[in-house]
Amino acid sequence: MHMRARVPVVVELLLASLLALPVAAFAFGDEIVIGALMPQTKKGASYGVPQKASVEIAVEEINAKGGIQGRKVRAVIMDTEGNEAVGVQAAQKLIQREKVLAIVGPAWSSVTEAVFPVCKREKVPCFSPTSTKPGISEPHRPWTFRNSKNEDLLIPETMAWVMEQWKPKTAAILTDIKDSYSKDLGKRTFPNVLREHGMEIVADLDYQTGDTDFSAIVTKVKATNPDIICLGSTWPEAANIMKEAGKQGLIKPYVCGVGCNNERLIDNAGKSAENTIMNVIFNPDADDEQVKHYIAEFKKKAPDESLSWAWATYYDVPKMIAWAIERAGIENTEKSLAADREKVRAQLDQIKDYLGITGLTTVDTKTGDAIKASTLLLIKDGKFTVVGQGEAKRPEARK
To answer: pTM of this prediction?
Structure first.
């Protein structure tokens, strides 16, 4: 029986039109082509420039060392706009027109949820560097991978630190209900973990991506006087929430997911961002030559950009894909493309203790997610400070 991908009707119409696109000329023998998906405009545009820079640095370094078995690597980078339908359209272009061997991305969990079924159906390895919403890779195995530790592992580690250090009894949760990642974090992960610690949720309030006026929400939170504020948010909205809270004199610690890990959060929120805790898979202050090298190259290519784990893993994933291609023994011809994709996929499943700038990575062959350690970062005195470490654990079943 032919299985249809679980995507919206509008996406299916896009797929039908894209299948009719002419195939681009492609020099299989001379170069190895991979695809990359990330938001470069519209929603998430602030993520796209540094992620693109990170992919380019990785590919340049691979080619500077002779490429893969003498073949240069070319990355075709496409904009998802942070939109599910556009992401699917871009993925289909990479697969059908560009004949890519594998795909780096997408970035956003919502876009990843739409693209993964397409890659499974087309049998193309797809490796998201940054999506952390739990449970979105396993249904589309064995073609899907993520170099991220999902929030069902990160948040419990964060809260264990919070309970020990701050001993809170009440919490407010603010959720971006328009964003798939944020909604899952605010409506499922945070409530579950807070209740496990016997905490009372005194406020549960919603907003939407792009909102800038948080005065009413902050006023409501202030009236409940929570011990901590949990943000199901990415950094732009988080910064605006913190600034408004500061204006209203609501000074509380914040517990965040990985979406808040960006130096611009501190730049924009200022002192209001103090005592914000999060758990991520990249420590830019690590005494590690790989990390120092990456940061130096990143600052050359994107001097005006901040540092974030969401850029660093876009450097690691192309290199992991290159590692897999090197070992796959591909023929790199149009006739062998399907077989070559399968060989690369099989090698990606063999990743064990791969040392990148985001730490040691092992692929969980059941879920496709990364098994890796993490770093607890607290914003203190206007900078991210390491306050603890998370363990390398296998992803758990969703609750």
So the answer is: 0.89
